[in-house]
Each structure stands twice: as structure tokens, then as C-alpha cells.
Amino acid sequence: MWTSLLSTSSSTFLPSPSPSPSTHSFPPPPQPRRRLFRRVAVVASIPDPAEGRKAEYTPWLIAGLGNPGSKYHGTRHNVGFEMIDRISGEEGIVMNTIQSKALIGIGSIGEVPIMLVKPQSYMNYSGESVGPLAAYYQVPLRHILLIYDEMSLPNGVMRLQPKGGHGHHNGVKSVMEHLDGSRNFPRLCIGIGNPPGTMDMRAFLLQKFSSEEREQINSALDQGLEAVRTLVLKGFNASIDRFNLVQKYKHHKV
Amino acid sequence: MPAILPLPTKKPKPKSKTKPTTTTTTTTTTKNPGNGNPNISKPSPALRAAHSRTHYHKPVPPGGAVLGEGERAVVVGASGVSYRLPGAPFEFRFSYSETPRAAPLAIREPAFLPFAPPSMPRPWTGKAPLLSKKEKERRRGKIRLFEPLGGASAEAEAEEGAVVLETRGRRPLELGNYAAGDGRSREEVLGPPLTRAEVRALVRPHLSHNRQVNLGRDGLTHNMLELVHCHWRRQEVCKVRCRGVPTVDMNNICRRLEQWQEKTGGKIIHRIGGIVYLFRGRNYDPRKRPRYPIMLWKPAAPVYPKLIQEAPEGLTKAEADEMRDKGQSLLPICKLAKNGIYISLVKDVRDAFEGSELVKINCEGMHASDYKKLGAKLKELVPCVLLSFDNEQILMWRGKDWKSKYSTPMPSLSKLQLSEGVLQSDVNSSGESTGHSDETTVSKVLWSPKMFSLWKRAIDTQKALMIDGNELSPDSLLKRVEEFEGLSQAAEHSYPALILTGGEEPNAMTAESNDKAKMGISRDPKDHDEEIDGTDNGADYEGSDFDSLETDVESSVPFGSLPIDSIAERLSRDC
Description:
heterodimer, A: alpha/beta, Rossmann fold, seven-stranded mixed β-sheet, B: alpha+beta, Translation Initiation Factor IF3, four-stranded antiparallel β-sheet, four-stranded mixed β-sheet, 17 helices, 16 strands, elongated, RNA-binding_CRM (chain B)
């Protein structure tokens, strides 16, 4: 496994056929450690064709925000958790590890490694678990996907954005704080609609869904799963824009 | 003597056929309250639309018509009503941007040109009208010159029979004189193009200032040409603020401004939202500018073909009615404000058509003429078919020949495609996955080696805990997480304790050290030396005496093995 570690750490370079004496005359390369490893890998290990050619994809960290405990299970504020459960179910990723106050599961969608995270700190402190996790697993900022509920979208409408603000969502605010105040991470917003009339916002968020809303959310989660797959495999492109438009007008049908 | 006023119902009396309705644009006439009740808020005279209720109706043949004789003519053609005047550089129109593409069917008033007549049958022998109360107020603080500015030149320019509107206290306004400018081309007047810094400097003072030309539901009107030149006389940049129906097609407005500008010489330097900043040109000379006659009244709009047909575009009446019924229960895609900016409306409607063939827009609060004009514009821009305007909503159908802008239907990644890829890579790296399958019970999922190594290290260094995640209720999960958090924090933040000899409370100290020894791993996994030391000391602590601890003090904390020491060493090495 040690050799495989070495080969993957240098996997961005293709292994050279043999170290030629002419390389010594070049000026010292900026990363001498890497070059050393490359030579060692070529000389010491038997080149495995699959490992040599396979590039290591940058992992994604998919975090769903919610409140822990059965008191908050299935409430509006916890749609993030439900989405993560759906992804883990469909992709066969078992969430079996507790690290940094969160329940995590490591796996992959296709070739891309992903990590599903359900922070078990309360919503306002989600950043304390997501931030250190991203740092530990060396996930870059642009590959942290945050899934949360959004009151400005109608119920069941989703939106995938490459970056954005917090929209007065305490969970997102805390995550942004722990990521050094940066807003440039992608997010999947799941709409839950405005509180009716003059209902208190917090009471609305901690309420469970009604039956029609429940059906809408379930179908939305399926659609969102497709979108997450596309995002992880292909990144932000025209199909994501199309997904956003389809979601925006999906309730305006006859 | 007070007249006996009629009851307060404001209906205009039916006008005779030959006399055109005139509403002068000059401000010398004051509003005459027709009824005696001052509390009823009167609708704005601009919206009174007396013209639409006239009984005059003269159809125009489909090829267009030229009404009037000789040089002064009213041309009714495919692009609406325009006025031809002798010596004019182009045909004047009431509105240059808001003319619908449909050809008019009839005109609503006799074909008079809304400009001043070229000459009067006899010279004017009267006096200018008296000043109104407001004008006297305005004049109160001002100093009257013996000769008004430009007064001498005005008299010199006035020719025999020329039409001059006399005003008190101001220079007389010439109507009906027009000049095509001094013949310079647009490029000459504009001069070299502006740099970005210059543009910013020019636009900056106007950004929060409301000295502007307002462009409303009539779009770019003829009198606006004069108005912009008046602004340009005082400042180099004229700010044009567009609101309402014309903003549906801002590009059209900008194109018309640029087109028109070719005749006057001006350039759009900045455009944001519904606001356009017009620069007059570096070599602009207000004295040599082109002069156009002003339109004295708003001419009646001609009759256009009906927007909503009973059975539009090949549908039968029954089908159309069925669609209208379906539209009753449709959610509107947006609600439009009364005088708002609708820049993204066309794009939104086009996107909505991708999902559904019927689209409804909520126009509550807008005037009926406004949302009908809006519907007409949408019909041209988004090609669509208007079905109904009832309940102040616009209902549209995308038409039979609608083509989606996407070439493929919505692609969906099926689980099938993915699982094939997973199985393939499973076979290739079977060595790894069999190694993993000990830990993960049922997973056929490929783990990236880097992630796996990080995960393994986390578990080994007690930062992570593996649990059986399947049958765990949220409450018990929370409890376990909180428990583990306490333990792992202790592991992370602890260091093998220095227990100095002191005799008091030895038991407690031992217990503490034993706990920590069981975790026994120091915080920084990078330093292998430290790790080994920690575990060794842990083993030592379990069975050792307190007396021997004094000798162990030095060995338990090897000098220079704290994390801060490694940082200091690295820094001193670097510099």
C-alpha cells in the first residue's frame, strides 16, 4: 500500500520511462520531493497499468445541515439530512464513522470520491464540524457542497449555485465563518416556502411537513439526487443551469 | 357668476367629426376642474384616452396611404403613422421605439400634422398670454434684465410669417423652424473614443442624481429629441431613465437611441438596468445642433388588429376555450409592478415555455392599456400567442411551431450507467477493495486510496470512531457523538502529564494519568519521536512509583519535542 500511496501522490505526473542522465543538467525543479518519489516509484515498483493511468479525482465533501436528535427528525430545517440519507441509500455509501462531531461516510459516485457528512452539532454550530473535516480530508473549497433548506424558494424547488450568501440561515452562516468567511462554495438549496401569514419563522422551520409538501419534497429529493450526480461527475455546466430552470418552473404546469 | 355645474360624472361630450381633439403640451393652460368636488382624485390626463372613444374611424388600405397634399403629408404605412415635412431630414413619428410591427387598420382622427403650421395667414398682432400665479412666483426672486438673453438674436432670426410662440419673461419659442445641423458627421462630433476612466468620471456625478429624461410608456417620443439637446446644453451627459412597458426590450430602445443619434451625434457610454447615459460628443456645439420642430399634441394612435382572437393560429374555438379553462388554474410565473422594469421578462417567459405550453403573468395593478401593450410586445418578441387578458392576467400559449432551445431532452444519469463503471474499476483494483472489504461490510463502492488512508489514520489516532450506523436512532446517535466528542477532545488536547512529587492527592493524580495513558497518544502525529515517547511513557506510568517519576521527568518531556519547537526550528532553518 505504501507504494500505491506514493504513486497516487505523484499521479499528476505520468511515470517517465527511465531517468536519463540529461535530467541532472536541468535547474533544480521547484518540488524536489516529488521528483524523488517519482524516481523511486519507477525504479522500485512494478508499474500497474490501471493505477498508473488512473488520475485521482479531487474528492467532494457533501454536507447536509440539520439538527440532531429524534425531536428534530423530519422537520423542515432538516431537509439537508434527508437529502444525505437519500444519496447514501442510492449510492450504497454506509455512514458509519463519527469524526469531528459529525456522522460521515466515505464512498464514491462513479470515479469521484465523495464524503457524506451529517453534522451532529446543533444547526448553529455546524461550521465547527464541517470546517475541520474539510481541512482534515483536504477537500478544496470549491468541492464542498452544502445542502440546506431555503425559505425564499417555493416548496420542493431546488437550486444548485456555485456560490452565494447565507440568506439568514444560521447553519450556513456558521459554516461560512469556519471556512474563513468565504462564500465561494457550491450549495444545493431545497425550497420549503415562506411561513404562512404571520407565523413565527422558527416555529415554521421546526414543524414537520404536511402530506402534500411531503410528496413534493420526496420527488424533489429524487431530482436533486440526479443533479448532485451530474455536478460531481461533470462540474458546473449548462446542464446545471437547465436543472435550475426546470426546477424554477416545475410548479407552473397545467 | 358661478355656473350651475353638472353632477360629478366625468364623461367627455362626443366631439364632432371634423374637429381634432387637441391637448396642448405647453404648461400655460391650467387644469380646469370639471366637477365641483375637489376630493375625487382625477385620473391623469395622459391616460384619459379620449382618442380611443372618438367616433372617427377611417380605414386605411393595406398597402398604406399618404394623406395630405404636397410636401406636408401624413404617411400611414406598415410601420405606423409618420409625418413628412418639407426640409426635414427624416420622417417624424410620435414614438420612435414603441411602434408595433403590425400594420394599422384605420386612423382615429383626421390627418392633421401635430406640428405648427409653416406660416400664418396674417401676422400676429396680439400679446403673449399673461403669467399664471406659479410663473409669477417663480419670477419673484429673479432679476429682470433690460433685454432678455438672446432676445436680440431671436428678433433677428424671426422672419416674416415665421411661427413664434410669444412668452412673457422668456425668449420667444420658435416653432416650425428646423435645421439639419451644421453638416458634420457623427464621428467628427464624437471625437476620439472615451477611455474607461473618462467614462467613469463622466457618469459618476449622475449616478445618484435625478436630473434625467424620463422615458415612459410612450417610449422614445419626438419631443425627447429636443429635451436631450436641452440637457446637453448644460451637461455633457444626459441620463435617460426608462420605466414601464418599453423596458421589455431595452436593446430596441438603445438601438433607436443610437440610430437617432446618428442624426444628432451622441453615444451611449454606460447602460445599467433601465438607465442609459448619453454622451454628447467631445466636439459638440450647442449652437450648431440640429433643430427639430416640436410636436404640439399627442396624436391619436391608429387602430391595430385585435390582439386576442377567438380561434388563434389554427386552433378551433373549442380548443382555445379549453386552453383558457386550463389557464384559470395555472400559477402565474411572476407579478409585475405597475411602472417597473421588465428587462428579464422575455427570458423568463421563454424559459417557462420549456416546461409548459401555457404561461400566465400577473399584472394586477397595472393600467389596462399598459398590460395590453405589454402583451403585444411579448407577442412579437417571444413569439407566442395571446389567449386572454381577463382578471388582469396575461395568458399566453407557446404556439404550434414552438421549438425548444435545447437540442436534447433532459439528460438523466441512471444508476445503471454508474454501477457499470463501478464494477469495472472494482475488478481492476481488486487488491485494494478486498483489503477494504474487511472494514466495510457490504460496500462494492470504490474507495479512493488517499481518502482511505486519511480515514484509517483518523481512526487510529482516535479522532474518528467507527460505529454500526444502520440501527441507530437519531437520539442514540447524538448521545454517542457527544460521548465520543468528550473522549476525542481529551485525546487531542492532552499531553502526557508531568506529575511532580507532592504527596497531596496522589490517588487522583494517578487516576488522571492512567486515563491519559490509556489514550496515550500525543497530539501531533507528524513527529514520530513524540509518538513513541508518549506510548513509552504511558507504559511507564501504569505501573510506576512516584519516586521514580522524578527521574522520568526529563525523559517524559524530551527537550525540544513540543510542536512549537518544531515550528521554531523550521523557521530558524529557513532564515
